[in-house]
């Protein structure tokens, strides 16, 4: 069960095109007034920027003054191929490169470059988010995984330095174990695993996705504003 649409306090959704090397990725950007940071969404296998679950979480973040960027990790041509092969959706290094490319796109925009950056990854997108975070330690400030596969980040887990939150459903037994293993391998000082009682992999149970969104918003509002102020202060001293 996906919650109903919540009202936005600020921000208008804009369709954007993100140049990432030789690919042009489609995205949806919302920037509330006085944003304290921006969260880039890495969707899961077989999903897209139109994922209703990620869009709901994004709306909750927007209501807390956090900008959001939901974008397709694959081009339309790549999606057509992947629909039959299923290979690209599990190519974590490839997906991480796309997320890194989108991050550089954000950093190059004058209206966004002062915002602290966070990642929200779902399913395989969580693995890609953690790999990207490990490669951008001075840029990415927080990571949240929803029903994710952080284990797919492999050895990159030991290099993740930013606060990382893993959220899984209490009835998602295989994924709980994978998240517990990944949590143990993470070396970042701030890390946490939250299990939502009674929830399955897609958090379709009544109230489950709302709880995910609330917990994720708390994590980002805790860590992004501090990083955003530090970045602004550094810019003033230059």
Describe this structure in words.
- By secondary structure, this protein is of the alpha/beta class.
- It has a single domain, classed as Rossmann fold, CATH 3.40.50.1820.
- It is 39% helix and 22% strand.
- It has an eight-stranded mixed beta sheet, with helices on both faces.
- Helix 3 crosses helix 4.
- It is globular.
- The C terminus is likely disordered.
List the topology elements.
Layout: E1 14-20, E2 23-30, E3 37-42, H1 52-63, E4 66-71, H2 76-85, H3 92-107, E5 116-122, H4 124-135, E6 140-146, E7 164-169, H5 173-185, E8 191-196, H6 208-237
Parallel strand pairs: 3-4, 3-5, 5-6, 6-7, 7-8
Antiparallel strand pairs: 1-2, 2-4
Helix pairs in contact: 1-6, 3-4
Number of helices: 6
Q: N-to-C terminal Cα separation, in Å?
A: 49 Å
- Strands ordered across the widest β-sheet: 1-2-4-3-5-6-7-8
Number of domains: 1
Shape: globular
Q: Can you identify the CATH superfamily?
A: Alpha/Beta hydrolase fold, catalytic domain
* Unreliable parts: 4-8, 232-238
The pLDDT mean sits at: 88
CATH class: Alpha Beta
In total, the number of strands is 8
CATH topology: Rossmann fold
Portion of residues in helices? 25-40%
């Amino acid at each position: 069960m996906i919650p109903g649409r919540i009202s936005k306090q600020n921000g208008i959704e804009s369709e954007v095109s993100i140049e990432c090397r030789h690919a042009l990725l489609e995205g949806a950007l919302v920037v509330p007034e006085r944003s304290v940071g921006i969260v880039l969404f890495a969707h899961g296998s077989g999903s897209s920027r139109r994922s209703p679950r990620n869009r709901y979480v994004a709306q909750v973040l927007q209501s807390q003054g956090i900008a959001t960027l939901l974008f397709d990790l694959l081009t339309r041509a790549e999606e057509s191929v992947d629909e039959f092969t299923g290979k690209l959706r599990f190519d974590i290094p490839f997906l991480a490169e796309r997320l890194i490319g989108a991050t550089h796109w954000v950093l190059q925009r004058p209206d966004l470059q002062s915002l602290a950056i966070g990642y929200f990854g779902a399913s395989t997108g969580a693995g890609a988010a953690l790999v990207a975070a490990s490669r951008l330690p001075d840029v990415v400030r927080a990571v949240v995984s929803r029903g994710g596969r952080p284990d797919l980040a492999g050895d990159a887990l030991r290099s993740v330095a930013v606060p990382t939150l893993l959220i899984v459903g209490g009835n998602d037994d295989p994924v709980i174990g994978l998240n517990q293993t990944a949590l143990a391998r993470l070396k970042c000082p701030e890390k946490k695993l939250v299990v939502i009682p009674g929830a399955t992999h897609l958090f379709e149970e009544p109230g489950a996705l709302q709880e995910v969104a609330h917990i994720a918003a708390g994590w980002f509002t805790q860590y992004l504003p501090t990083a955003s102020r530090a970045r602004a202060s550094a810019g003033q001293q230059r």
